[in-house]
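Consider the tokenized backbone below.
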């Protein structure tokens, strides 16, 4: 019998279109499908109540349905206001066996083009398990696992607990971002209703599995300050995540976003990439592949030298600002492109960010200019804006400075996300199933599981792995079944 549940998506009528796309994606996600085959019967996630905050795309739909196939209950929100694919969200709510009239899938709270206030309401929704608790006759009312991307869901719990301990939510300081003021409002309303909601949720949480560099960075800071409330699995630093998704994923989805947004020819243009980490490497390679002349900036001498040895000019942004046609930020850092830099760009230069948050580019500075009448923002189409500047020139800003590969395109393709999400599933199984092995702190998956994820993707590409002979294994001092490298090996 179908149980009715609440959800918030753009249009359930898109479910059929979404289901077709999910079906095609499943064929490109051999890792997730192999995990369904391996664990579908034993259901290692039975009893897991997963609150998920990760871009609600077609690939994520395959992840969600894999978690469900392994026994989990799931509630989901997106981790970005522009990244949801409405047809994927609808299909997940309806589920593989449900109908638009009688949805039988998963409660999703996500649509493309949320306001920031709606975004945080949706994030709060994934923590409200009272319907599921009532249906199960249980006393819990929250999740026992988080699956996070960027750390917003984890932040909400930590801030909630902090304010419940203090007995009040502080007034926002003048320096606080508009977004954090919204978070404070959400938590103030929550505290008015319950004095210990987040404390109880935190106590039930077995852990969080975190998808991205920026979210992982936040987790290590919490751990360093002794503030981390539950164990965390750093999925990003599985080799089969950051050395694949961040690099090859962006190599695909950055040009996709540029094309869909502007259709500008990249060949012959000057492209500038801020940051030569994993994402920056993929971005720079893609732009060079299209024939752009690529310049890179770095603060780290090792990455700067890597960029130079890969054949890129390495420069400071301000030294070449007037030459740039396409400016990409990929640092995970704040304040990388200043208002001064923006004012120094060519007429109709494109500015776009692929780092997790929108503070890499001084969007607040641009908005300040608009507020005082010195600049004007014209919508060319959703997620593409021309900013007319006081210099008489304009710039094109994609996705309002937020992840353009997800805002202007549909994010990374299925095959690479199958690697990332196989790590997510294994991390959920580990943290949920073996809590005794993972005390409060930030962990990475054992290398043998990282190798397993890679292994699950070889056959689809026709890869024939060479087998280590017993004599060779002995010579190298490793097990023929792996792990093949020491933990300090960097790939
Ligand atoms: P990373 O740490 O490998 O690379 C970032 C690089 O930026 C580092 O080498 C650092 O030295 C450099 N950097 C920092 N400040 C800088 C500055 N002011 N100027 C120039 N360079 C600077 O991190 P990764 O994995 O490349 O991730 C970067 C960002 O992209 C993160 O926010 C991450 O969460 C996000 N991300 C986005 C994806 C997408 O689909 N758009 C996919 C994966 C990650």
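A designed sequence for it:
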């Amino acid at each position: 019998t179908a149980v009715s549940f609440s959800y918030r998506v753009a249009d359930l009528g898109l479910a059929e279109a979404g289901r077709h796309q999910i079906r095609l994606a499943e064929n490109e996600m051999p890792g997730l499908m192999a995990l369904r085959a391996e664990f579908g019967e034993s259901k290692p996630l039975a009893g897991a109540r997963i609150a998920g905050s990760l871009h609600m795309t077609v690939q994520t739909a395959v992840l969600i349905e894999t978690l469900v196939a392994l026994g989990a209950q799931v509630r989901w929100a997106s981790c970005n206001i522009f990244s949801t694919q409405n047809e994927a969200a609808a299909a997940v709510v309806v589920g593989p066996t449900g109908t638009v009239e009688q949805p039988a899938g998963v409660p999703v709270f996500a649509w493309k083009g949320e306001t920031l206030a709606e975004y945080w309401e949706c994030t709060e929704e994934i923590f409200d398990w009272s319907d599921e608790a009532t249906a199960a006759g249980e006393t819990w009312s929250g999740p026992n696992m988080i699956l996070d991307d960027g750390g917003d869901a984890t932040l909400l719990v930590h801030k909630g607990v902090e304010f419940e301990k203090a007995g009040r939510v502080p007034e926002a300081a003048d320096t606080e971002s508009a977004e954090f003021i919204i978070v404070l409002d959400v938590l103030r309303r929550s505290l008015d209703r319950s004095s210990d909601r987040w404390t109880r949720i935190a106590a039930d949480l077995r852990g969080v599995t975190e998808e991205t560099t920026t979210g992982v960075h936040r987790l290590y800071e919490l751990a360093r300050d002794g503030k981390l409330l539950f164990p965390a699995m750093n999925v990003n630093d599985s080799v089969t995540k950051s050395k694949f998704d961040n690099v090859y994923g962006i190599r695909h989805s950055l040009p996709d976003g540029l094309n869909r947004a502007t259709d500008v020819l990249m060949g012959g243009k000057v492209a500038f990439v801020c940051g030569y980490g994993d994402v920056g490497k993929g971005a720079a390679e893609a732009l060079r592949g299209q024939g752009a002349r690529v310049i890179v900036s770095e603060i780290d001498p090792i990455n700067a030298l890597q960029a130079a040895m890969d054949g890129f000019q390495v420069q400071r942004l301000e030294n070449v600002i007037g030459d740039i046609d396409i400016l990409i930020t990929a640092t995970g850092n704040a304040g990388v492109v200043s208002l001064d830099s923006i004012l120094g760009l060519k007429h109709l230069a494109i500015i776009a960010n692929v780092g997790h948050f929108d503070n890499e580019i001084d969007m607040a500075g641009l908005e300040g200019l608009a507020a005082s009448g010195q600049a004007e923002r014209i919508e060319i189409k959703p997620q593409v804006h021309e900013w007319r500047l006081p210099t008489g020139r304009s710039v094109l800003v994609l996705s309002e400075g937020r992840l353009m590969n997800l805002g202007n395109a549909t994010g990374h393709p299925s095959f690479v996300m199958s690697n990332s999400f196989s790590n997510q599933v294994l991390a959920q199984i580990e943290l949920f199933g073996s809590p005794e092995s993972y005390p409060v702190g930030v962990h990475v998956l054992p290398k043998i599981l990282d190798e397993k994820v890679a292994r699950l993707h070889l056959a689809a590409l026709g890869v024939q792995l060479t087998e280590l002979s017993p004599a060779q294994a002995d010579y190298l001092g490793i097990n023929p079944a792996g792990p093949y490298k020491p933990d300090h090996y960097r790939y």
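The chain has two domains: 12-242+412-449, 250-355+359-401.
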